[in-house]
Amino acid sequence: MQSNIKTGYKETKSVMTKSNGPLGGYAVNPYVGCTHGCKYCYASFMKRFTGHTEEWGTFLDIKEWPEIKDPKNYAGQKVIIGTVTDGYLPQEELYGKTRKILEELKESGADILICTKSDLVLRDLDLLKEINEKNRLTVSWSVNTLDEDFREDMDDAVSIERRLAAMKKIYDAGIRTVCFISPVFPGLTDIKAIFERAKDQCDLIWLENLNLRGGFKKTITDYISKKHPELLPLYHEIYTKKDRSYFEDLEKKAEEMARTNGCRFVDNETPYERVPKGHPTIVDYFYHEEVRGTKNSGKRNKNQADQSLPKGDASNVSAR
Ligand code: SF4
Question: Does residue 208's CB lie within 6 angstroms of at least one atom of ligand 1?
């Protein structure tokens, strides 16, 4: 386990936070902070609400909450575990807070989505199977590269191979899985290669573009200048001149990939379905922050381009 993390405790009245994102429902973050410390973390803006002065990724508060009295209140509600942290950080092994919330919700009838970059979720496989019998349950892993060196440059989570192996085990256990290709780094993320690697072990593939905003814009731009200077003009076009053609082209390629592989391609929807092996539904979340509302909105309205979310809103799908 990481030894340089400053840990503390935080008492809270409830761990269930009503979400104002397009999916509605509740966000559950059993920890404050996230020790995966991703360089592009959309949730790092949260630091200013935590009272911490340390760098994002180097502190963690363990939440304490009173037991949920009436879990049935959440029946049919979307409950997303891990929107501004990862419920399966290495520290979960010791504190078990994600397991606690899963135990509390196991009879709730909620529609539970776990977002992670870890394989520690396998520790809870028996519990997940039990939950899956009475609730909707989905587990999603963020995979935006197959290149472990790039992955290591970007986060302190487990390797991509471990994430994919965990996805396969959960999928083989009959639980719905998602390969969340996010964030898609222009010129670096190969969505086709990831699709090929994951298609037989997931029901959904989500695609989300890299947003560069807030504190991490400089970090990522410096990284690109140092490691991939040839991509700087492209990043300048996309993130300074706001040129959308790269992601529009990618969107077309993803749609074509869906067609050739007999997969459904949808825009900003989250269909709850199991699909035949090898034919995951591909969900286009590019620029999804432009679609705001409590229901899935179907086709993106490009005229809404100026009505984007307030800067730093990471609660829409997940921070990852
Ligand atoms: S992007 Fe997600 S996994 Fe990475 S540090 Fe942020 S909350 Fe944690």
Answer: no
Starting from the edge strand earliest in sequence, which strands make up the sheet with 26-28, in order?
Answer: 16-18, 26-28, 78-81, 111-116, 136-142, 176-184, 204-209, 281-284, 265-267
Which residue, by CA, sits nearest to atom 6 of ligand 1? 41
Q: How far is the CA of 40 from the centre of ligand 1 (A)?
A: 8
Does ligand 1 lie within 6 Å of residue 142's CB atom?
Answer: no
- Entry pTM: 0.91
Q: Specify the ligand 1 atom closest to the Cα of 117.
A: 3
Look at ligand 1, atom 7, and give the residue with the nearest C-alpha.
85
pLDDT in the model for residue 23: 66
CA-to-CA distance for 195 and 32, rounded, in angstroms? 32
Ligand 1 nearest atom to the CA of residue 82, by list position: 7
> How far is C-alpha 172 from the chain's CA centre?
21
Q: What is the pLDDT of residues 117-143, one digit of tens each?
A: 999 999 999 999 999 998 999 999 999
In short, whether 79's Cβ falls inside 6 Å of ligand 1 is: no
Q: Which residues of the chain have pLDDT under 50?
A: 292-319
Pick the CATH number of 6-304 from 2.60.40, 3.30.70, 1.10.10, 3.20.20: 3.20.20
* Cα 261 from chain centre: 24
Give the domain ranges of the chain.
6-304
